[in-house]
Write a structure and sequence with these properties.
Blueprint (H helix, E strand, L loop, with lengths): L5 H9 L8 E7 L2 E4 L2 E4 L7 E6 L9 E2 L11 E3 L5 E5 L2 E4 L2 E7 L2 E6 L6 E7 L6 E4 L5 E6 L4 E8 L2 E9 L9 E3 L5 E6 L4 E8 L2 E10 L5 E6 L5 E6 L8 E7 L6 E9 L2 E6 L5 E6 L16 E9 L2 E10 L3 E6 L5 E6 L4 E8 L2 E10 L4 E6 L4
Antiparallel strand pairs: 1-4, 1-32, 2-3, 4-5, 6-7, 7-10, 8-9, 10-11, 12-13, 13-14, 14-15, 16-17, 17-18, 18-19, 20-21, 21-22, 22-23, 24-25, 25-26, 26-27, 28-29, 29-30, 30-31
Amino acid sequence: MRIGMLPVSLLLACAPALSAAQVVGIALDPKVAMVDGELQFVAAPPPDSVEFLEFSGADARLPVQAPTSFQGPPSSVAITADRKLALVSALQCIDSADPEAFAPDNRLTVVDLAAPPFRVVQTIELPAPPATVAVDPAGTMALASHTEDNSVTVLALSEARVRVVGTVPLGEGGGPQDVVFAPDGKQVLISFPEHDRTGVFAVANGRLETPAIRELSAGVYPTALAYCGRSGLAVVANYGRVTGDVDTVSVLDVGATVPRVIDTASVGPAPEGIACSPDGRYVAVSLQNMSTVPKGQPYHSPQSRLVVLEIEGRRLQRVAEAPFGAWAQGVGFLDDPRTLFAQSMVDRSLHLFRLRDGALEVAAPPIAFENVAPVAYGIPGR
């Protein structure tokens, strides 16, 4: 694996705003490539892995082998707030009977980050393939969503170990995808794209309480979710149907007595990832932007786009946008609320940007990965 110019260039771009090393876990999938809009399986790919990067000029950590998958929301890595444990989910793997087909993958990998070298300490077989995984702020509870099984598995974390507590059914046909905890750990958002709904759930005593407090209707095919700090607001990316139509993101007032959608803004085709800055002021969206369809199709674009919006007066205002590599995946902010990254599977890179004076500028050269593509990420406590 090759890490491009991380120690020096990123230190110069970001370190003045960072009080300590910012750790980001990057899920890396080597199994497929895209050629003119067509998915192709890679012959004899290297193992799946997750790389833990320190954004303070420190050297990158060595990768840890763990099953990963580009399918599902780009949030299949969860790191506890104390940075001692990481959970990595995988939705699909290569079929052992056919190297050019996928098979369900029920595995959840637990990585010990307490001391180098990082190491896998558990591999858990869940009741169904996990689309994504999230850890609560206290680091004692985790949730893994199961799209095909219409359920969520509840896990307990204690003494660097994880155990399955139980599985909670969530109704028929909704296909739960992304799961995120509120900053206080008392609430959870779950997206149900097949029903065009986002559910607001209560959490108490290590349990996910059902039914939902309320199901919100924000847009077409809601997937990725993020809380906006402690503002009482959250955002959802409404992925749409990849038809070339402009898709949307929505602001959710989840702190209200009756949660509801309070604003929706057009951003562009197929918003794959979404994130809020730590101060809750900015929203970043990674758009696949029709970069995953063949060149001969209408609306094809050779690049993804990163769009940044500001939440002002509880409404979304477009601030800036910039192109980056095709087939966008996750997007996120560092501890510095003006420095952000976006993942490209085609470029096999992490693109780094800085929001300055109402414009996006390149913060450092892309962090390039060799023979593997970044498909998801996790940040401690988020």
